[in-house]
Design a protein that fits this description.
Elements: E1 2-3, H1 31-40, E2 43-47, E3 51-54, E4 62-68, E5 71-76, E6 82-88, E7 93-94, H2 96-101, E8 107-110, E9 114-120, H3 124-130, H4 132-157, H5 161-178, E10 182-183, E11 186-188, H6 193-200, H7 204-216, E12 220-223, E13 226-229, H8 232-239
Parallel strand pairs: 1-3
Antiparallel strand pairs: 2-9, 3-8, 4-7, 4-9, 5-6, 5-8, 10-11, 11-13, 12-13
Helix pairs in contact: 5-7, 5-8, 6-7
């Protein structure tokens, strides 16, 4: 596991040409908002798979928006047992918790090679003072993280194993779909069954058996890291999933 490299001040992807802006599931910026974000962004960070982007118990001078790649938010017990709290995808915002609470309460590790937009933490108050719409977006992002944790806690605590697995896989597929990572109802998941087990609070053996039950339902297929939704209605029913992200969601 490696630590993050220093952000590069060179902007390789101009904000006005950000590929995330082409996704209809994401809210578009006004020209004034775009001008502010262009000035707010200080550079980009490239990180290899396995890089620790943020460490529990520490603080960071930077905030990040994921431009490309996947990561995990996780907490680890002293004996090495790990709970994955959530998966991080493009357009997700990182580091706000450490800014508000003084230090990170979880760690963030890259699952794949990543590119992140970098924003200096000390300029966050400028956003709140001059851009109330973007400030509301940050509040929305924080509330959404709370909502995602609610769903994961419900899954770990009360959903049956098959429901739990179906929910997480459908949820990740839909999030990937929102940011253009799917095609023909397929997505390349970068995580292993062990990652799923750590997210579901299940053993690897139990996760494997439950995944076989899910694929036997003919709702999904998962082979060589390619996950395919064969019957979206059936998967939604198995997961007990309620569609909530119907409006374009904000990102910074």
């Amino acid at each position: 596991m490696t630590t993050a490299a220093s952000p590069s001040p060179q902007r390789q992807v101009p904000c006005e040409k950000c590929p995330l802006r082409a996704q209809t599931a994401l809210r578009d910026f006004s020209q004034d908002e775009l001008d502010f974000v262009r000035g707010f962004k200080s550079g980009e960070l490239t990180a290899e798979a396995g890089t620790t982007l943020l460490v529990e118990g520490t603080n960071s001078a930077h905030l990040y928006t994921v431009l490309s790649g996947w990561a995990i938010r996780h907490k680890t017990l002293p004996d090495g047992r790990r709970q994955i709290l959530n998966f991080v995808l493009p357009a997700d915002f990182l580091g706000l918790q450490g800014t508000v609470l003084g230090e990170m309460q979880h760690s963030v590790e890259a699952l794949t090679d990543m590119v992140l937009c970098v924003f200096p933490r000390e300029r966050l108050w400028e956003l709140y003072r001059s851009q109330p719409s973007l400030a509301f977006d940050l509040t929305w992002i924080a509330a959404r993280e709370e909502q995602l944790l609610d769903e994961y806690l419900l899954g770990v605590g009360r959903r049956r194993a098959l429901e739990r697995l179906a929910f997480v896989l459908l949820h990740l597929f839909l999030r990937a779909e929102q940011v253009g990572l799917t095609a023909d109802n397929k997505v390349q998941f970068p995580f292993t069954q062990q990652h799923l087990a750590d997210a579901l609070g299940m053993s690897l053996v139990h996760t494997n058996k439950t995944l076989r039950r899910l694929t036997a339902s003919k709702a999904v297929r998962w082979k060589n890291r390619t996950f395919e939704v064969l019957d979206r209605d059936a998967l939604t029913s198995l997961a007990g999933y309620q569609m909530t992200d119907r409006q374009p969601r904000p990102f910074i």
